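Much of what follows relies on a compact textual record of a protein's fold. An example makes this concrete, so a full record is given next.
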Amino acid sequence: MLSEKIDNYFELTARGTNILTEFRGAVATFLTMAYILAVNPRLLADSGASCEYGDGGPFSPEYELCLEETKRQFVVATALTSMVACLIMGLWANLPIALSCGMGMNAYFTYNVVGFRGFGNVSYGAALSAVLIEGIVFFFLAVTGLRFWIIKTFIPEPVRLATPAAIGAFLAHLGLQTAEGLGIVVADVATAVTLGGCAPDRRVPMVPFDAACKADTSLCLVSDAYTCDNLGGQMESATVWIGLFGTVLMVILLGYKVRSSFIIGIGLVTVISWFRGTAVTYFPDDALGNARFEYFKEVVSIEKLSNIAGKWDFSEAKGSEFAVALITLLYVDFLDTSGTLLAIVQAMGYVDENGDFPRSRAAFTTDAIATMFGSAFGLSPLTSYIESAAGVEAGSRTGLTSVFVAFFFFLSIFFAPILSSIPAWAAGGSLVIVGALMARSLADVRWDNPAHAVSAFATVMVMPLTYSIAYGLIAGIGTWLVIRAVAFPLSYFFGIADPTIIADKESKKEEEDVAEAAEEDKKEKAFSDDEA
């Protein structure tokens, strides 16, 4: 039977799951990451892609029209490449991990490499060449096993244990903000972040007041960052409260072990937000809302990829700026993917005593293939998505979940107008909940040892506050290396015990004591039974 073949191929019974559970997990994963279909095209379109200024310049109506067309092409490209990447991950690596364009890397690609509307020092074609080369390097590291060796060798135990919780804090941070979440945390001039939740008409945009902006305010780069301090109205936004309602609903359902908790919560808030003329509508009566609604009404839409596909330009792939872009994309993607994969697989309980997990080489290689494939369609690097943790919490344990997610992305190619209309406030609460559940990994950190405690704490704090998994790992690993660099000469030349090694010995002794006590109990029980 087909069900038996699926069971055997994906090891469903062996991993304690079934087809329905994997489907639920896939829906939860897809709904929590569906925002990428709206956010990624908007970010990458800001690079200008292959659109040319013409006589009207970068702010002419003709250029704006090209950007709008390019943005819709990026929706299809994001869905297509994500579908292929998830399919490979599911069928080859057999892990419930979805892939798409990495958040953070897409922003770096647009605003730091290519520049806003092409004002950067690297052309769009050269930047895509850097992505392709980065993918090739990753592929070599993955197939040779060097990638896992680097992870195992250079990511110390406290950082490895703290990474799931750190990524969870990062997810919660995303879920509390506006672009991907509830909009409770917003920008602040004095304190960087503060309480938000104000209505759109009370939001004051934050802009980088650089030399170009000072000279001509029309060149000021306006982002999603805004503050509520100037006009007030904190926590008065209706979308915040409907999002909190969905969050509380999901928490209650999870408390009652309802496997479809995320689906119910996100789906209910989404449907409510689709009605026009309400305070929580995703389609307000303005230019943006009307544009969203017109696109939403299309239901089915297939875009050509003429503006973004096959746009590599190796003739421009040279110079110091290109080298910096390549190296930065390389190490950020490496650390992001490594941290995400280890965190999710560790949460599933599949990481062995050596820090390895089943089909790890296939998982890392899939990430590299996805990045190379994505560059062909004009995209920044693809990576494993931490939102996959939502599916794991819903019960996902095998690659069948990734196959289902691939199917949803396949539908997105045609139904992008529907699926890209899931409001951020509908899915934001699920990110906060998943972040809270991932904090359980901190229980295994040796908090009584300062070397372990500080390294773990640095990882957890820096990751969400810098908006980067890579920087969090760098902070944790860097802290650990500094401690080891001081402890080694003290131990070698003066005989002062290394605190990190002491922790290892103490842990081993504790394990031996526990095992010895268990053996004694077993002998006493056997003796009692004989006496009886």
Remarks:
- The longest helix spans residues 61-93.
